[in-house]
Amino acid sequence: MEVVRRLRRLLTPDERARLKRVLAMAVLAAVLDMAAVVSFLPLMSGAADPAALMANPVVARATGLVGVQGARNVLVFLGAVTLGLIVLANIAGILRLRMVLLTTHNIQHYLSRRFLAIYLSRPYEWFLRQHTAGLTRKVLEQTGRAVEGALFSTLNAAVRGVSAVMLVALLLVVDPYLTLLVATVMGGAYAVVYLVVKTLQVRLGKMRLQAVQDRFKIVSEALSGIKEVRALGVEQEFLRRFERTGPPYVRASGWSQVVAEAPRHILEILAVGTVLTIFLYLLTIGG
Predict the structure, then answer these.
(1) What is the largest CA-CA distance in the chain?
(2) Rounded distance between C-alpha atoms, residue 193 and residue 184, angstroms
(3) What is the dihedral of CA 204, 184, 164, 167, to 10 degrees?
(4) 29, 165 in Cβ contact below 8 A?
(5) Cα(158)–Cα(107) distance, rounded to whole angstroms?
(6) Is residue 155 within 8 Å of 103, Cβ to Cβ?
(7) HSE (CB half, 13 Å, CA atoms) of 46?
(8) For residues 245 and 218, is the Cβ–Cβ distance under 8 A?
(9) Separation of alpha carbons 201 and 86, rounded Å
(10) Phi/psi of residue 121, each to 5°?
(11) Beta carbons of 222 and 238 less than 8 angstroms apart
């Protein structure tokens, strides 16, 4: 969050306005998500008990407005409404993702340009004390990793969080006790997974950054001083130095991606396991 706060201070008013539009789109997508979920409830109960569905005053009033009669036709109508809402919710989700990605990439480009402008304004003597590869990496790579790793992740969490809050509110209305139980189990599991992943990612991030810096430095020295390298015949020495950076770079990069993807699979196992456990419990007590 500290990185996000620093990035936010660097943004122009126009970029901040873009972020507000992204959040507005997130609210719209969340409303459609919740509407799609709500539409499932009468459809499922109607499939199990058509008589109860026909006795529902809300359903009767809605189907009366469109002139739909008979349990079968009402179910077909509700199915069409549910399908339509699912389509709209997914279209809104795609548009929401598009806005998030375009906004973050635009901010990344803006920050890279700002970095480059700052460097180009420095006196020539300053460049003599700097490493060209390091400056290039900050302009092109590090700004991208900061924006994508911090701002994109936060924006993505925020827009999905809006949907999550609305859906949880809906579930609390439907069954507060069961919702609180599931929220406690999944929330506790998520907290544990988050702490473990955060610790690993910080460690792997430092390893990867060091490996990337070493690789940039070696390649930059070899190519910028190619005349001296050829004259001294030290090509193999540079190749050996570069080869030594391979294992730590591969380990840090590979494991970082594995650790980033692992929580989704772990939480999916916990989510499905929780649902099945509740289902079997309710089945045994006749719920």
Answers:
(1) 92
(2) 14
(3) 160
(4) no
(5) 17
(6) yes
(7) 22
(8) yes
(9) 36
(10) -85, -10
(11) yes
Phi/psi of residue 286, nearest 5 degrees: 80, 25
Residue 85 belongs to what H/E stretch? helix 71-120
For 6-40, the three-class secondary structure string (H helix, E strand, C coil) is HHHHHCCHHHHHHHHHHHHHHHHHHHHHHHHHHHH
pLDDT in tens, the chain (287 residues): 666 677 677 777 887 788 788 888 888 888 888 888 888 877 777 777 777 777 777 777 777 777 777 777 778 888 888 889 889 988 988 888 888 888 888 888 888 888 888 888 888 877 777 777 777 777 777 777 777 777 777 777 878 788 888 888 888 888 898 888 888 888 898 899 889 988 998 898 888 888 888 888 888 888 888 888 888 888 888 888 888 888 888 888 888 888 888 888 888 898 888 888 888 887 888 76
Which among 86, 79, 78, 84 is positioned nearest to 29, based on CA atoms? Answer: 86
